[in-house]
């Protein structure tokens, strides 16, 4: 029996916890169609869209009709395929305007520091190049002068190499020149390293600036595909596992991908 509160109108009122936790099942079911379109990123035939949402075409069609009336979904008049409609696009753009990538990233750093077991940081592109905006110490101490507001070398830090790999080459070249490395982008080894970062989404630095200290970093993208910031982990070289499939690398990647998706970036697709 449901717990009821006293109500002068004599109509039963359920506990607030039960009221807030109960949803509308039909909305949740229909929402799977919107999720399927968002995940695939393309228009879909009814049968394919229904299959992706784990329902039959007959069950999916009424939802699509209602979503179409709202502007959440639209149907191509030639192919008959369904795609996200103008209201979905408006909601997405408004969401992108409201979200703060720095605030989201900073909130993730304490948990990430515990997962990777070392100091982590977030950096953005400033007027002169990459700038560290937040440092969160982990359980493994790192005796490095890392603090908010200091620049990150584009050539010799994991954070900097993320920006060197994904920012516009002209911006990177100008920042490298200010760093005293005007010809760095022409170095075959550095160019190959940046290409490898773009392929794998992970930068790695071992004993470059300081002996015994290593780091790795990942990109965070916004909904327009632009690099929003970089998340890095730094620790003793003997302890920080720079392997591509290490637990620390996976934790860093998962955080970067999660933040990117929350900022509206497309989910990575296999293959």
Automatic annotation (TrEMBL):
Q: Which UniProt keywords apply?
A: DNA-binding, Transcription, Transcription regulation
Zinc among keywords: no
Pfam families to which the protein is assigned, alphabetical: HTH_IclR (PF09339), IclR_C (PF01614)
Whether DNA-binding counts among this entry's keywords is yes
What InterPro entries does UniProt report for this protein, alphabetically?
Answer: GAF-like_dom_sf, HTH_MetabolicPath_Reg, Tscrpt_reg_IclR_C, Tscrpt_reg_IclR_N, WH-like_DNA-bd_sf, WH_DNA-bd_sf
Residue ranges occupied by any HTH iclR-type domain in the UniProt entry: 24-86
Q: Domain IclR-ED, which positions? A: 87-265
- Residue ranges annotated as compositionally biased, kind Basic and acidic residues, are 8-21
One GO MF term: DNA-binding transcription factor activity
| Record region (Disordered) | 1-24
Entry's Gene Ontology BP terms: negative regulation of DNA-templated transcription
Tell me which domain of life the UniProt entry assigns to the organism this sequence originates from.
Answer: Bacteria
Write down what this protein is called.
IclR family transcriptional regulator
Please report the organism this UniProt entry assigns to the protein: Tepidicella xavieri
């Amino acid at each position: 029996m449901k717990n009821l509160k006293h109500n002068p109108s004599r109509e039963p009122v359920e506990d607030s916890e039960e009221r807030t936790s109960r949803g509308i099942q039909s909305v949740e079911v229909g929402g799977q169609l919107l999720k399927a379109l968002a995940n695939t990123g393309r228009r879909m035939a009814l049968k394919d869209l229904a299959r992706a949402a784990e329902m039959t075409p007959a069950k999916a069609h009424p939802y699509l009709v209602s979503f179409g009336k709202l502007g959440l979904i639209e149907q191509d008049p030639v192919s008959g395929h369904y795609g996200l409609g103008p209201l979905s696009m408006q909601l997405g753009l408004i969401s992108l305007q409201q979200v703060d990538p720095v605030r989201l990233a900073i909130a993730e750093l304490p948990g990430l520091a515990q997962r990777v077991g070392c100091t982590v940081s977030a950096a953005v592109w400033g007027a002169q190049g990459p700038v560290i905006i937040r440092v969160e110490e982990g359980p493994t101490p790192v005796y490095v002068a890392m603090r908010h507001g200091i620049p990150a070398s584009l050539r010799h830090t994991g954070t900097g190499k993320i920006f060197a790999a994904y920012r516009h080459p002209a911006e990177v070249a100008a920042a490298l020149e200010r760093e005293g490395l005007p010809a760095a982008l022409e170095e075959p080894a550095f160019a190959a390293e940046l290409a490898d970062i773009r392929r794998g989404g992970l930068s790695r630095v071992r004993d470059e600036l300081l002996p015994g200290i290593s780091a790795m970093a990942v990109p965070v993208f916004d909904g327009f595909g632009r690099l929003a910031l970089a998340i890095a982990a730094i620790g003793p070289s003997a302890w920080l596992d720079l392997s591509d499939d290490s637990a620390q690398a996976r934790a860093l990647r998962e955080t970067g991908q999660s933040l990117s998706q929350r900022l509206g970036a497309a989910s990575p697709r296999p293959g």
